[in-house]
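User: I need a structural model of Export protein from Companilactobacillus crustorum JCM 15951 for a docking pre-check later this week. Nothing fancy, just the predicted structure tokens so I can convert them on my end. Input:
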Amino acid sequence: MDNKMKKDSLLKSSLWISLSGILSRILSVVYIIPWNIWIGPLAVGAANALYGKVYNIYNLFLIIATAGIPSAISKEVAAHNALGRYDQSEKLFKKYTFYMSLVGLVCAGIMFFGAKYVAIVLAAGDMRVVTPIKYLSVAMLVIPALGILRGYIQGYAFISYSAFSQVIEQIARVAYMLYATYTIMILQKGNYMTAVNQSTLASFIGATLAYLFLIWIRIKVRRSVTIEDVKTTKDLPENGPEISFSSMLRSAIPFLLVDTIMTVLQLFDQTTFTWIYELILHASQRTIDDLYAMFGFQANKLIMVLVSLAISVSASVIPALSAMVSRKIENSQIQKLMRNIVQFTVFIILPATFGMMAISRQLWTVFVFYNQSALGSKVLIVSCFEAFFYCAFMILENILQVTHHVKKSMLYLVIAYLIKIVLQLPLTLALGVYGPLTASTIAFLVMSYFAFRLINQQFHIVDKELGKRLLKILLDGIVMLIVVSIADFLVVKVISDATKIGAMIVIIICGLIGVAVYGFMSYKDGSLKILKEIRDTKIY
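Assistant: Understood. Predicted structure tokens for Export protein:
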């Protein structure tokens, strides 16, 4: 291999995707500040509710159009490359780029020509979503090919490039959204519907630029493979893996179902929440829009920063574990890797969750409005619990699939859906806006327990040493939460958090205190050593 294209280690790939994911999520959250201001306080609830509903529908079509193939491509390419079958990887890439582009074309056609029926089924008949859905349909022409290319690059262990493409995509998307919204709402004095329409078109622009960047990276990747690296078809064993669309779909569908769960639950929330509040509680459309926007869009945008952390770990785990399994590495090595993954995941996600909970009121003031912060901050805290257990559930589900527990993985998904369906009505009636979030949290919590128990039965991950390490991380996080909460209470006595600038200053001060406290404690008790332990772990 050319030294100029050195593969990423597990730590480097996780850090790259973490940084790019966080940056992408921060961009997707930060744009809300000017976007909400330009939309105006009178229309912001309706605009956020509309935008949230449209993007939930779009995400469903997006996942269907990619069909879990990017994760499957990453897994298969890593497995082939670990054995020197680079020509097989190339066949996979070309064949499934063609197939999935056709799927994207079909999905785009359904979204454009069937937008009215999509609105009836997936948006409780809200016809306001019809035009934005048509605008988003254009992005479906690019997204499937982009997903295939990302999976291909990740399978070669050049995950940092795939991660950077996400940053390019978000920068382009947010830039166009803000430009279009400012032009329409401020310069032209237009209405929020037109601004939402143009904001949805930004997805196509961002995806196109990211795709062009990855095409250039693919050329560099192919040039880094020497003739000596490649084992041709005649060198393959007779029982080598068959390259067929059906076999790839069998590998991809489980990833599809895991990736889909949050989107499906959000679609379930936006339809059932509307029905419950209309038919049983007899609430007004404005009340429904304001409450749904609060938990279905505004809080959801903020917790996606946490979810991006889990995605970074998951995207690194898939090729690493797949390569280990394909090379029949000893269970003791896989056991060690999994223990590090568990510790690393908790080390990163737990303090981020606690930190967001501690400054939830200021976050709401900065990204939404101060007059909603009393209720909004509570919604955000409950959403943080949901996000934490969703992250755990998603990572564990992906590990189950890579370690050949696909049937159990699918069973746990079905049970999670059933728990959500059963709890949705009673919890929404009892808890109001917190009900849908609580139902999802319970579903993820229960299934995370079963998934982890199954993985532990196979690899015996849990031991006294891991328990001590996780307990230290938990105590560090709790201390950080207490210190930051006290700091937040004291700082607002001096600096008012009723304005966006004041709230931002409070966030910065408390954030620095939180990082310092958690960093110091994790250094003193040795928890920080997890970064060193996985630093030299290679993907293959």
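Before docking, keep this in mind: The chain has 20 helices and no strands.
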